[in-house]
Amino acid sequence: MPLRTVRAPDLLPVGRAGCPAAALGTFFMDTFIMAAWEIWKMRDAVIFDGARPTVQLWTVRFKEQILLQLIRYREDHRLCISQWLDSVL
Fold first, then answer.
1. pLDDT for position 57
2. Does residue 16 belong to any structural domain of this protein?
3. Which DSSP string corresponds to the chain?
4. Rounded-to-integer distance, Cα 65 and Cα 70, Å
């Protein structure tokens, strides 16, 4: 069975529900940084706290982090990002 290839633009909210393309660059970079940051924090928890990392825990924390960062975006971009977040995660 061939692996499904997912391209980054397919995961972004641009073009869906009239979302503007203006925030594509910053949204992609912010999302990547938040995902990496949550992975880093989970790694630290394993090393220092003996925690057990799971994909589900990472997903919850990543989603919470994006919701916290929504205040930084314009109102019209917030709706698009929220819709994207609900559809992807």
1. 94
2. no
3. -PPPP--HHHHS-TTSTT--STTHHHHHHHHHHHHHHHHHHHHHIIIII-----HHHHHHHHHHHHHHHGGGS-HHHHHHHHHHHHHH-
4. 9
Host domain of residue 38:
21-88
Q: Decide if 59 is inside a domain.
A: yes
Distance CA 55, CA 35 (A): 12
pLDDT in tens, 36-65: 999 999 999 999 999 999 999 999 999 999
How sure is the predictor about 26, in pLDDT bands with cuts at 50, 70 and 90? confident
Q: What band does 4 get if pLDDT is binned at 50, 70 and 90?
A: low
23 CB neighbour count, 10 Å cutoff: 19
